[in-house]
Amino acid sequence: MGATAVTSDITADMARNADGDDVKVRASNVIKTYPGKDGLVTALKGVSVEIPQGEMAVLLGPSGCGKTTLLRSIAGLERPEGGEISVSGRTVYSSDHKVYLPPERRAVSMVFQSYALWPHMTVAQNIGYPLACRKVAKAQIAERVQQMMDAVHLGKYGHRYPNQLSGGQQQRVALARAIIADADVILFDEPLSNVDARVREEIRKQIIALQAEFNFAGIYVTHDQVEAGAIATKLIVMNHGEIAQVGRPQELYDNPVSRYVASFMGTTTEVSGTATSIDGMVALDTAVGRVIGKPTSAIVDGDRAVGVFRPEWGHVVHEHPGADHNVWPCVVKLKSFMGAHMEVVVELRTSSGAPVEATVAAPRGSGLREGQCYYLHVPSADLCVLPEGEQ
Amino acid sequence: MSSATTLIVERLGSRRSAHRWVTLLLIAVGFLVLYPVVRMLWRSFVVDGAFSLSAFGQLFEARGFSSMLADTAIYVIGTVIVATLMGGFLAWAMERTDARINAIAGVLPVIPILVPAIGLIFGYLVLFSPESGYANILLRWLLSLETTSGPISIANFPALIFVTAVSFAPMAYMIVSASLRNADPALEEASRVNGASRWRTFWRVTLPTSRTAILSSALMIAILSVGAFTFPLFIGTPANITTASVFVYRGFSSWPPQQDVAIALAVLLTIVVQIAVLAQLRAARAANRAVIAGKRSSASALQPLGPWRWVVRGFIAFYMTAVLLPLLALITASLLPYRGATVSFDNFSLDNYRSVLSDATSREALINSFSFGAIAAVLAMLIAAVLIYAATVRQRSRGIDLVLYVPAAIPNTALAAAFIVAFAGPPFNLYGTAALLILAYITAFLPQASASATAAVSQLNKELVEASYVSAASPLRTARRIIAPQLLPGLFAGWVIVFFLGVNEVTISVLLAGLDTPVVGQVAVEFFESGRVPHVTAMAVLTFIASLVVVALAYKTVSRAAATSR
């Protein structure tokens, strides 16, 4: 890998940023229920997504949020009860028109969590299978398989059986098999959850590079927020069978529209209070006094709302920073070394007596001591005000 | 599993024709399994169109009925106690003590299949025959006895029970060791930490936690010994012991025939075994419930026994000797020209084999047994695989399970009697035909075939099938290229088991094989009754070796297939 990996990373980024408006997967209002212990469980409550060519859409959420069900419905491995799904402009499922195409007629490929390599076939046979199913001539299959194996650095392993490969190598065979048929859409079902951290990063880069080369539309399911941020051009956070928010990873991180998305995307500190709007900003009356922040979704005056900030948005300083809001005296309770920075837990004094704790990132060498008093400042342009709702 | 299989159903199964074929097969197999039993019940309970118990009155008044009842009771109770103790003790020694010998722990479960009853029995007959038995000769020499016979005879109850128990003990071993493996050894460690001695721990913790498993295995052995035929026939006959299944056989084979009495007894046996089977199912269910959830401790379950270790190992060695020594004796005897010939190289010859192979009947019997066994095994596995696959796919399995597992609750003697009643006469007229034998083998071994097929089908990996579909493979290609290669090794292993059981079958063969279709089990009985023991030993060894060759080939294929699967 080494240097080539870096350059292919850059080209991948360029390809990924080029907006194709050619929609490859369109799901609208997809509904899916399962028989559960007590009655039906709704796994998808009318979900709609659009994924253009060259885009990598990541479905992110905790287990049971419906992300895998949506992926499998697109593949044709599950049959929804309602809605419509089209792949490359062709309707593959429609409840209204009674259309259901089986998976083998949908022109999608899929990478499975368990790799799903056929144990009785060699690496070359595994990779060539999708071509054989599409009635490609033998000589051509052999040539394409060799190209594909070279592309995933498995050139010499064609005659091995899957059980003779390492986990990372097996995953690359699974990747090659998914990509070789040149499908418009490739589905990834938590493909990296079974390999160790180092291999995971390497294969993630390889997926990005392969997407740049083959320009497919990707849908990628994961519950790992870091992995999602690294690979997504479009991040779709799901919650209980519904889409919570869609956007670029940075948008979802900086401007979450709900406490659910905010906390799923990373560590947060929350202070709750009553909202009043001023000049496009929202002021909250909280136990630590007045908190001013930006609303990322509609907030009604007088409602309960929550001010949310991430560790790196707050600054713990020795002197009062001079700002007239969002500055609170605080005591450092705990410092933890996190590598690039220190994570500091501070306690804010409150009017009600019950202290509020906040987690803040501080640069190393800022000279903070546990038990000492400082000021915490969170600029109002960073702090998000979100509806209280359910978390 | 389920969603993948549902998917396959939707594609393959929902096609009308496939559905209809499965239903037809189920009806055909249901007929094969249930019709003979129903006919047999009908014949013994209905006389001239009216319900009657006269057949049973006749049975109770039959000569030797009460002594048969006593013999059966002694035999069953004795075998249950000895076999359960043997198997249970082996299980405890292997799973819970440092007397464990890994190689033997692997071999024990396959002994019932690998060591056919007939080989074991004739091995013991050769070892302990009063005058010429090798063990007896050795003992006389060691103890400087002046007699020409004895000191040990196996023509008695203790020997009959012991030999049967040696053969059945692995059943108890499998059930009890599975339960011990499931129970967390931390239970015992907790007892030790709390101050209980090793023996107190054994009595108060180990034994109670495996109580249901012990009960379940005792009932299992009761079912097996009620139906056991080979042991009481060969060992019991010289000792004037007649158990129920031998009584049924005599009813059919002796002159004047007493078919009605034999059939009535077969019905009675079936009913008694039903009760035991129901009890066994309950016990087995309770044994499954007793599995303790939670994280298992990683500590070794093997308790050090100190000097006792060698005592326990001694017992393990004794058991293995009790299995293997007779086989060695059998091979030796098959090389000697007549019973009692001195064991020396000069006397060794292949004469017995030559005469077995040149004798038309025994040669034909060998060929028949191997081909009938192979055909029955193929058909049984095919039936079991199709029906069990259909059951998983439709998620409706009651009817299928019933049909496949009912034969396990019918003693083979009774099954053979039922087949005679149902198929021997018009309209089928199958008596003495190869078809009747093969059908009976299929029926008798359906439960074993089904167990193997269930294991194979449950190992079918859902994602491997889905991966084929998303690779654009048609259902047919998926079935051929992905599903079949995954199922085959498991089905093949099942084939080996059924083949082995069929080749070595005695009980059914002796009642159903006619003059034109001799098979090994039946010819062995004939030779034995006409005193041609060396020929039986040669035939047993030939069967054993030929089966081993088949198994070795099978094992090679299966392990090669297994090597390529993770």
Automatic annotation (TrEMBL), chain A:
Residues annotated as domain ABC transporter: 25-265
Example of a GO cellular component annotation carried by this entry: ATP-binding cassette (ABC) transporter complex
Keywords of the record: ATP-binding, Cell membrane, Ion transport, Iron, Iron transport, Membrane, Nucleotide-binding, Transport
Domain of life: Bacteria
InterPro entries: AAA+_ATPase, ABC_SmlMolc_Importer, ABC_transporter-like_ATP-bd, ABC_transporter-like_CS, ABC_transpr_FbpC, Mo/tungstate-bd_C_term_dom, P-loop_NTPase
GO molecular function (one): ABC-type ferric iron transporter activity
Entry keyword annotation includes ATP-binding: yes
Matching Gene3D superfamilies: P-loop containing nucleotide triphosphate hydrolases
Cross-referenced PANTHER family: SPERMIDINE/PUTRESCINE IMPORT ATP-BINDING PROTEIN POTA, SPERMIDINE_PUTRESCINE IMPORT ATP-BINDING PROTEIN POTA
Protein name: ABC transporter ATP-binding protein
Species name: Aeromicrobium phragmitis
From TrEMBL, chain B:
Membrane topology, from the record: Multi-pass membrane protein
Extent of the signal sequence: none
Chief location of this protein within or outside the cell: membrane
Subcellular location: Cell inner membrane; Cell membrane
Transmembrane intervals: 21-42, 73-92, 104-128, 148-173, 213-235, 261-279, 316-338, 365-390, 402-422, 428-446, 487-515, 535-555
Domain ABC transmembrane type-1 intervals: 69-280, 366-554
UniProt KW Ribosomal protein keyword: no
GO biological process: transmembrane transport
Keywords, in A-Z order: Cell inner membrane, Cell membrane, Membrane, Transmembrane, Transmembrane helix, Transport
Gene Ontology CC annotation, any one: plasma membrane
Family: Belongs to the binding-protein-dependent transport system permease family.
Family matches, as PANTHER family: INNER MEMBRANE ABC TRANSPORTER PERMEASE PROTEIN YDCV
Protein name according to UniProt: Iron ABC transporter permease
Organism expressing this protein natively: Aeromicrobium phragmitis
Taxonomic classification: Bacteria, Bacillati, Actinomycetota, Actinomycetes, Propionibacteriales
